[in-house]
Automatic annotation (TrEMBL):
Origin: domain of life: Bacteria
Domain MIP18 family-like residue range list: 7-79
UniProt protein name: FeS assembly SUF system protein
Amino acid sequence: MDKEIIKEQIMEQLEEVNDPELNIDVVNLGLIYDVDLDDEGNVDITMTLTAMGCPLAGMINGLVEDAVRKVEGVNQVHVNIVWDPPWDKSRMSRYAKIALGIAD
């Protein structure tokens, strides 16, 4: 199992998961802080949301888990939502900023 290839595939899958309110994927929004993969194929995703108390947190969590499970070699998936460091617009990719009309 090549962990780096699997991590790349995980990130590609996460680019398919859109924030339901902003309609931009969680990777380009800068919501994914870390992807950890152990030797057994267990994945820990550390991420945040754009706002604390987001009513769609459970939905986004489920979408992330479902996307990561599609990657061959992945066993279990755990999503850990954190609030520190807090998310801000500087974490967004250039693509996300353009799509949302935010100046660099």
